[in-house]
Design brief:
The complex is a heterodimer. Chain A is 72% helix and 15% strand. Chain A is an alpha+beta fold. Chain A has a five-stranded mixed β-sheet with strand order 2-3-5-1-4. Chain B has two domains: 98 residues, Rna Polymerase Sigma Factor, Chain: A (Orthogonal Bundle), CATH 1.10.1740.10; 95 residues, Winged helix-like DNA-binding domain superfamily/Winged helix DNA-binding domain (Arc Repressor Mutant, subunit A), CATH 1.10.10. Chain B is elongated, with a radius of gyration of 19 Å. Chain B starts with 9 loop residues before the first helix and ends with a helix. The chains are: A alpha+beta, B mainly alpha.
Chain lengths: 412, 199
């Protein structure tokens, strides 16, 4: 071992990091070499001095400050954690919900539309019978007044009460075993390139389902030139199809499926109340009629007979009128109506412009995706706003669950 | 039990373990008990590195708070002491880096090669080594340590002031033991040179 090697090992020797062999060699060298021994001693001395250097005392208030900082930190960190979790949860829910909402946007949107439609129908529908009966009621009221006058004249006042009772009871009974009267109307707008075939299909399916075509018209309103420059006329047809209620949906779907659908709508109008109000009115009038007939048989002079006769005629015609109304409703309720418009279009195979410009296609697709994006954003925004109340509840729930989990973990 | 508590008795080890577990659940009292004996050392490390009492106080406290915040992620199988000092040490180094408190650069480190040292000794016929043993005092040593390059100063602080083992120093500094060994040897040599110069 030379002096240089020895110098390198002084430090390790002092720290006892040498192997036994190395240490022995080192010691041997020290015995021989004075310089190295001096160096070893001085290094050792320095290390000792460094080791004996007194540590600086902690500054005053060090522990208190540290304690305060720790307390503050523990509070803050707890809160931070909580806040971060809450925010994260909120975001996850938000994103998830928006996603679900916007994904369901097509389906959900439709169903909500349907609902809106139903609501509309429900709103509209009572308005209609409500208005109608009010007119009827007015008529009835006038009529009652008139009756009164007649009867008073004839000395038969008091009968009216009985009549009213009849009316009320009949209404009560009828209220219970009502049969729903729903008028179902569908409307379809179809495009087809094979007009004749389509009309044939309409004919056969309507016949198969025991329906009938109430009205049908065909006219030509357009034409085009085909590849061999022949003028080809394009026809448009309007059909009113009556179909038994139970077959309505299948026929409707069939008609829809056979051509290119342009527009469709189904409208269900519940006229049950209206129907039974008219029905009641008829019953009342019939009761009145009967009473008048009784009066007639007791009539003493011609004037009276004439008077009653006139009254009877009036009541009779009113009853007939109302009954026609009823049978009309019966008919419309048992047979659904489909208004079908069929437009003949050019045969796509021949007429489709072959060299559609790529640029215009690209433009179209660009516009489409922009529109889609706007739609998506609108949907997202709308569903987000709509989701806020649910969100509030969900956040609360998540928060509670989180606290519970936290507690369980703590217990563990 | 192959960790730093191997020399302690089992009771003390378990006590420390309990304190760590309590600290992990946010018990400040337990944490303070845990770092009771380390506070002073942490402060002194910071003081040695940063050379400024106020900074040392702030940064050592910041470091201990970091220890508290991160104690949840402490792996029970490793040594708490090493882990803790690693945080303290790194916090100080980071701070120093950020503030660009290049304290040691004020006194340009002396870049002597290995070969220069024996020459110098040979040149000086009076043999400074002897003088050194006579004149050595704490002030001189302290000032000289401050003048060391960071790499050397750090290992001297950890080895000779704090008394860490080579293996622990390697863990704290994130380097291998070979590096630690050579840095300590060279650091001590440099320290000696500086002391001789300052005498």
């Amino acid at each position: 071992m030379n002096c240089r090697e020895c110098k390198e090992k002084i430090s390790l020797y002092i720290d006892k990091e040498l192997t036994d062999e190395e240490a022995l060699e080192f010691e041997k060298h020290l015995e021989k070499c004075h310089n190295c021994r001096v160096e070893f001693e001085s290094t050792k001395k320095i290390i000792e001095t460094v080791g004996n250097m007194p540590l600086e005392k902690l500054p005053e208030g060090y522990c208190e400050t540290l304690n305060n900082k720790l307390l503050e930190k523990s509070k803050r960190s707890k809160w931070n954690w909580r806040r971060i979790t809450a925010i994260a949860a909120t975001f996850i829910i938000l994103i998830g919900a928006t996603f679900v909402f916007s994904n369901l946007g097509i389906g959900g949107g439709k169903s909500s539309n349907d609902m809106g439609f139903m609501e509309e129908a429900a709103e509209e529908e009572p308005a209609f019978p409500a208005e109608a009966p009010s007119m009827e009621q007015k008529a009835a009221y006038e009529e009652a007044e008139y009756d009164d006058a007649v009867r008073e004249e004839m000395g038969f006042s008091g009968v009216l009460d009985g009549e009213k009772n009849v009316g009320i009871t009949s209404e009560n009974t009828s209220y219970r075993d009502r049969e729903l009267k729903i008028i179902k109307t569908g409307s379809l707008e179809i495009e087809t390139s094979s007009y004749d075939e389509y009309v044939e299909k309409i004919d056969s399916i309507v016949r198969d389902n025991k329906g009938y075509i109430e009205n049908m018209e065909t006219y030509t309103n357009n034409y085009y030139y085909d590849s061999s420059n022949n003028k080809v006329k394009l026809r448009t047809g309007r059909f009113t199809i009556r179909i038994p209620n139970e077959a309505f949906q299948s026929v409707f779907d069939f008609l829809k499926g056979e051509g290119e659908l342009i527009q469709e709508s189904i409208n269900e109008n519940d006229v049950t109340r209206y129907y039974y109000e008219i029905d009641n009115k008829v019953k009342n009038l019939e009761a009145q009629e009967e009473r008048l007939r009784e009066l007639m048989s007791e009539a003493e002079n011609v004037t009276e007979i004439m008077e009653i006769e006139r009254e009877l005629t009036r009541i009779r015609s009113e009853i007939d009128n109302l009954k026609m109304n009823l049978s009309d409703i019966d008919d419309r309720a048992s047979m659904s109506t489909i208004h079908l418009g069929v437009r003949e279009i050019e045969d796509e195979g021949r007429i489709q412009p072959v060299d559609e410009n790529i640029w215009s296609e690209a433009k179209e697709s660009f516009t489409r995706s922009i529109n889609r994006m706007i739609d998506f954003m609108e949907n997202t925004f709308i569903s987000f706003i709509g989701f806020i109340p649910v969100l509030a509840v969900l956040i609360l729930a998540v928060f509670i669950v989180w606290i519970i989990i936290k507690k369980i973990f703590k217990k563990k | 039990m192959n960790n730093v508590y191997i020399n302690n008795n089992r009771g003390e080890y378990n006590m420390k373990r309990d304190l760590i577990i309590k600290s992990q659940k946010g018990d400040i009292e337990a944490f303070e008990e845990l770092i009771k004996e380390h506070k002073k050392y942490a402060y002194n490390i910071a003081l040695k590195i940063l050379k400024n009492k106020e900074n040392a106080e702030d940064i050592s406290q910041e470091a201990l708070i970091k220890v508290y915040e991160n104690i949840k992620s402490f792996n029970m199988n490793s040594s708490f002491k090493t882990w803790m000092y690693k945080i303290v040490f790194n916090t100080c180094i980071d701070f120093k880096r950020k503030k660009r408190l290049k304290t040691s650069s004020l006194d340009e480190p002396i870049h002597y090669g290995y070969d220069d040292i024996p020459k110098q000794i040979e040149d000086n016929e009076k043999n400074p080594e002897k003088l050194l043993t006579e004149k050595l005092n704490v002030e001189l040593v302290r000032d000289s340590i401050d003048k060391l390059e960071d790499d050397f100063k750090n290992v001297i602080i950890l080895r000779d002031i704090q008394g860490f083992k080579y293996k622990e120093i390697a863990e704290i500094l994130d380097c291998n033991q070979g590096t630690v060994k050579s840095r300590i040897s060279r650091g001590r040599e440099k320290l000696k040179e500086i002391i001789i110069q300052n005498m």
